[in-house]
From TrEMBL:
<keyword id="KW-0313">Glucose metabolism</keyword>
<dbReference type="Pfam" id="PF02781">
    <property type="entry name" value="G6PD_C"/>
</dbReference>
<dbReference type="InterPro" id="IPR036291">
    <property type="entry name" value="NAD(P)-bd_dom_sf"/>
</dbReference>
<comment type="pathway">
    <text>Carbohydrate degradation; pentose phosphate pathway; D-ribulose 5-phosphate from D-glucose 6-phosphate (oxidative stage): step 1/3.</text>
</comment>
<dbReference type="InterPro" id="IPR001282">
    <property type="entry name" value="G6P_DH"/>
</dbReference>
<comment type="similarity">
    <text>Belongs to the glucose-6-phosphate dehydrogenase family.</text>
</comment>
<keyword id="KW-0560">Oxidoreductase</keyword>
<dbReference type="InterPro" id="IPR019796">
    <property type="entry name" value="G6P_DH_AS"/>
</dbReference>
<feature type="domain" description="Glucose-6-phosphate dehydrogenase NAD-binding">
    <location>
        <begin position="37"/>
        <end position="215"/>
    </location>
</feature>
<dbReference type="GO" id="GO:0004345">
    <property type="term" value="F:glucose-6-phosphate dehydrogenase activity"/>
</dbReference>
<dbReference type="GO" id="GO:0009051">
    <property type="term" value="P:pentose-phosphate shunt, oxidative branch"/>
</dbReference>
<feature type="domain" description="Glucose-6-phosphate dehydrogenase C-terminal">
    <location>
        <begin position="218"/>
        <end position="513"/>
    </location>
</feature>
<keyword id="KW-0119">Carbohydrate metabolism</keyword>
<dbReference type="GO" id="GO:0006006">
    <property type="term" value="P:glucose metabolic process"/>
</dbReference>
<keyword id="KW-0521">NADP</keyword>
<dbReference type="GO" id="GO:0009570">
    <property type="term" value="C:chloroplast stroma"/>
</dbReference>
<comment type="function">
    <text>Catalyzes the rate-limiting step of the oxidative pentose-phosphate pathway, which represents a route for the dissimilation of carbohydrates besides glycolysis. The main function of this enzyme is to provide reducing power (NADPH) and pentose phosphates for fatty acid and nucleic acid synthesis which are involved in membrane synthesis and cell division.</text>
</comment>
Length: 514
């Protein structure tokens, strides 16, 4: 069965697959997709976008007729673009059959156009080239804005007026950050909507494309054993933890303007929280899911500064090696107070989640790289085993469900278990679903799924403007208060577990970090 090999589990993906087969077999053989990566000379394009497009090509997921254009100001020929992207293309599938041949075929479909982001003339020239490749077929066009946010609107204005499709759809994938607060985000949305309809805008949050995040709804809504427990009645707290074992290397200039709350919490972790906590959607349709997410976000209690801890990493020397502090980065001001770590307690004021702490923790330059969701259940009432066994070694240990988003993707449930033997001793064991042991198929990169969805017009994993407004409405007052009060972050050594303040915050809410 395809499911056992890690194939698509959700109905829309299956439908989408069927649609692709129909497209390539007949129905739409006269259509073509032109994908323009705007900012093709940049880091994200090289690291993620071109490799993801190649993986889709390798897997046979791109339509039969497609063309990829890189667009940026840097002067480059087609051959130079191909040379540049070929260096990162095979990162996921280099050991697979015919990878070299497929790569050659793919590169022949990649072209480059030099242009300014605010030049109608340069986009008109791009349009001309796209038309030549499209060869009179019905043309669909996807623009991926892989550029700094201050030029999003210029590029959209030019792309929509000078290079949009005249016969098929035109869609634009917009990378984060979508503003810095409610005001700037609303202004960006308003500007984009001068040139695009909401359903043409695909705001990407790549965490939504991660396998275990997509699986969250499957876990909840297709297993009878979880959904009945998914409330304040049985869950004591939920934790969303993001940690990186490296600093802001190379991105200090960007990061200092945003900080960890905007970089990770307001988007990636909050999106996961919304999926975790939403009510059952009417269907798996994008609008039904996004309606439920918005409701949860709008039910959240304003975040209090006393429920937040911020930190910043400082230089440390270990084993003769010195690891730099955040402000050692030349692009970061020496007196920067920008948090590289934050922990926060959030609450959802609705019937399902009243009084349950949702703890978030995100940090750079910590001791490990991981992203996980931890669900800590309440104590078993009565505690029979502690009473009857004269005090076992497990007195009040509770169940915990862990969804490990990365690395070593997996789901495990901590249960109390009798240690085999004649005595009655309990310990805590794991019911463990480790993806690498269970599924032979490797896990696609998040960008692959999201690019494919954008091509197919599947909006489920993209952020709608009202979701974005709700997310900013939650975080903007907190960010303003932190910045106005010039709150000093707690300094933590590079490579440590972060500020101790995070433990006090958890203890205040009767929680222990997992
Ligand atoms: P880069 O800073 O590498 O910029 C991409 C390209 O944009 C550059 O190659 C450059 O191309 C052009 N560019 C850069 N600065 C300017 C400027 N001031 N004015 C005009 N053009 C400029 O960005 P990334 O590739 O790192 O990121 C692209 C987008 O994706 C950003 O919005 C970023 O926030 C977001 N993002 C990036 C991630 C990453 O890991 N890199 C992760 C998540 C999101 P040229 O000079 O050739 O025109
Ligand atoms: C990006 C942040 O959105 O996500 C980066 O801007 C962060 O700061 C990155 O490093 C983490 O993504 P991943 O997929 O590597 O966990």
């Amino acid at each position: 069965s395809p499911e056992l090999k890690g194939g698509p589990l959700s109905i829309p993906s299956q439908e989408a697959e069927d649609k692709l087969v129909i497209e390539s077999n007949g129905g739409k053989e006269h259509s073509t997709v032109s994908i323009t990566v705007v900012g093709a000379s940049g880091d994200l394009a090289k690291k993620k976008i071109f490799p993801a497009l190649f993986a889709l090509y390798y897997e046979g997921c791109l339509p039969e007729h497609f063309t990829i254009y890189g667009y940026a100001r840097s002067k480059m020929t087609d051959a130079e673009l191909r040379d540049m992207v070929s260096k990162t293309l095979t990162c996921r599938i280099d050991k697979r059959e015919n990878c070299g041949e497929k790569m050659e075929e793919f590169l022949k479909r990649c072209f480059y156009h030099t242009g300014q982001y605010d030049s109608q003339e340069h986009f008109v020239a791009l349009d001309k080239k796209l038309k030549e490749h499209e060869g009179g077929r019905l043309s669909n066009r996807l623009f991926y804005l892989s550029i700094p946010p201050n030029i999003f609107v210029d590029a959209v204005k030019c792309a929509s007026s000078s290079a949009s499709s005249s016969s098929g759809w035109t869609r634009v994938i917009v990378e984060k950050p979508f503003g810095r607060d409610s005001k700037t985000s609303a202004a960006l949305t308003k500007s984009l909507k001068q040139y695009l309809e909401e359903d043409q805008i695909f705001r990407i949050d790549h965490y939504l494309g991660k396998e275990l995040v997509e699986n969250l709804s499957v876990l909840r809504f297709s297993n009878l054993i979880f959904e009945p427990l998914w409330s304040r009645q049985y869950i004591q707290n939920v934790q969303f933890i993001f940690s990186e074992d490296f600093g802001t290397e190379g991105r200090g200039g960007y990061f200092d303007h945003y900080g960890i709350i905007r970089d990770i919490m307001q988007n990636h972790l909050l999106q996961i929280l919304a999926l975790f906590a939403m009510e059952t959607p009417v269907s798996l349709d994008a609008e039904d899911i996004r309606n439920e997410k918005v409701k949860v976000l709008r039910s959240m209690r304003p975040i209090q500064l006393e429920d937040v801890v911020i930190g910043q990493y400082k230089s440390t020397t270990k084993g003769g090696v010195t690891y730099p502090g955040y402000t050692d980065d030349k692009t970061v001001p020496k007196d920067s107070l920008t948090p590289t770590f934050a922990a926060a307690a959030l609450f959802i004021d609705n019937a399902r989640w009243d009084s349950v702490p949702f703890l978030m923790k995100a940090g750079k330059a910590l001791h490990t790289r991981s992203a996980e969701i931890r669900v800590q259940f309440r104590h078993v009432p009565g505690n029979l085993y502690n009473r009857n066994s004269g005090g076992t070694n497990l007195d009040r240990t509770t169940n915990e469900l862990v969804i490990r988003v990365q690395p070593d993707e997996g789901i495990y449930l901590k249960i109390n278990n009798k240690v085999p033997g004649l005595g009655m001793r309990l310990d805590q064991s794991h019911l463990n679903l480790l993806y690498s042991a269970r599924y032979s198929k490797e896990i696609p990169d998040a960008y692959e799924r999201l690019l494919l969805d954008a091509i197919e017009g599947e909006r489920r994993l993209f952020i709608r403007s009202d979701e974005l407004d709700a997310a900013w409405a939650l975080f903007t007052p907190l960010l303003k208060e932190i910045e106005e009060k010039k709150t000093i972050p707690e300094f933590y050594p590079h490579g440590s577990r972060g500020p101790v303040g995070a433990h006090y915050l958890a203890a205040k809410h009767n929680v222990q970090w997992g």
